[in-house]
UniProtKB/TrEMBL annotation:
Residues 4-302 form the Luciferase-like domain. GO terms for molecular function: monooxygenase activity; oxidoreductase activity, acting on paired donors, with incorporation or reduction of molecular oxygen. InterPro entries: Bact_Lucif_Oxidored (IPR050766), CmoO-like (IPR019949), Luciferase-like_dom (IPR011251), Luciferase-like_sf (IPR036661). Pfam families: Bac_luciferase (PF00296). The keyword DNA-binding does not apply. CDD domains: Flavin_utilizing_monoxygenases. The keyword Oxidoreductase applies. SUPFAM superfamilies: Bacterial luciferase-like. This is Luciferase-like monooxygenase. To bacterial alkanal monooxygenase alpha and beta chains. It comes from Alteromonas confluentis. GO terms for cellular component: cytosol.
Length: 337
């Protein structure tokens, strides 16, 4: 079974690196993804994190779009409670005008940051998760055709019909995506426990819409692939340390890899983190291909979206090439070299 492969890029700022380094790496990732035939490249909105440079997601997407020519680009996701739906419609309407038929708008309902930073974003702090469905539908309306009688218009935005996705790490967005007839992407790269339940809820609650006639679900997994198994394990220590920092509330750039994770993290930390990252694809290309095939068979997902948490630019691009070469599970795009 062949399915599309995509990439979720967090524009990681590695230890000893800058945001400028992260931006150049993001453009290189997108260009390589296009060359390898990936379906789409998404960027994630996070704020106040020293290891993530994609806070101004729409701005960075413009640079990524300019560095590519055909691959789909988008958000994985925009944290809608942080924003007015009209502003997001204008931003993504602008992107869709600059890069026609290439832009996706994935939406999440978490703040993507701590509460102090969420307050500093200056959205109405009295808003609740109950507003999220209405905000999604308002955004959808702003991006639909201009009927001439709209009191509020998104210009650019109206008529672009940017495809919406709902993203989630629990059952809430799975059900809402199904009810609205939208594609759904589950964050199994950091929230594996509800993966199968969320897919089931989404499919069971799906109602065909003008946007989608049958359920379509993607799942996010981390992927660290190298020619040598030991090297893949070493590179994987960066994200293991990053998760440890999150648990310790240490806001640091993404750590450089270490030779022995047990020398820097406790046995308990390693076990807990590896459980959270249990769907991560780590190993040689042959090992990774088996792991991906097993994941697809177990979940029945329609698309895989990989994040490559590797601080070294060239090693990250190598991993993207390794996964992109897995023709037995990857559906190549028409523009693939």
């Amino acid at each position: 079974m062949s399915i599309p492969f995509s990439i979720l890029d967090l524009a990681h700022i590695g230890e000893g690196q800058s945001a400028a380094n992260a931006f150049e790496k993001s453009k290189a990732i997108a260009a390589e993804a296009e060359k390898q035939g990936y379906q789409r490249v998404w960027l994630a909105e996070h704020h106040g994190m020293r290891g993530v440079a994609s806070a101004a997601t729409a701005v960075l997407l413009a640079a990524v779009g300019q560095a590519t020519s055909k691959i789909r680009i988008g958000s994985g996701g925009i944290m809608l409670p942080n924003h007015s739906p009209l502003v997001i419609a204008e931003q993504f309407g602008t992107l869709a005008t600059l890069f026609p038929d290439r832009v996706d708008l994935g939406l999440g309902r978490a703040p993507g940051t701590d509460m102090a930073t969420a307050r500093a974003l200056r959205r109405n702090m009295n808003a609740s998760v109950e507003d999220y469905p209405a905000d999604v539908m308002a955004l959808q309306d702003y991006l639909s055709d201009d009927k001439g009688d709209n009191r509020v218009l998104a210009i650019p935005g109206a008529g672009t019909k940017v495809p919406l996705w709902l993203l989630g790490s629990s059952l809430y967005s799975a059900k809402l995506a199904g009810q609205l007839g939208l594609p759904y992407s589950f964050a199994s790269h950091f929230a594996p426990d509800m993966l199968l339940d969320a897919i089931s809820v989404y499919r069971d609650s799906f109602r065909p819409s003008a946007h989608l006639d049958k359920p379509y679900v993607s799942a996010g997994v981390m992927s660290v692939v190298a020619d040598d198994e030991a090297e893949a394990a070493r590179l994987f220590t960066s994200v293991q340390q990053q998760f440890a920092n999150l648990r310790r509330q240490a806001n640091d750039p993404m750590p450089a890899p270490v030779d022995n994770i047990d020398a820097v993290l406790s046995e308990y930390e390693v076990a807990a983190i590896n459980n959270t990252l249990r769907f991560a694809i780590v190993g040689t290309p042959a090992q990774a291909e088996r792991q991906i095939s097993q994941f697809v068979e177990a979940t029945g997902v329609d698309e895989m979206i990989f994040s490559f948490p590797i601080t070294d630019k060239e090693k990250c691009l190598d991993a993207i090439r390794h996964v992109g070469g897995m023709t037995s599970v990857m559906q190549k795009q028409d523009w693939a070299a």
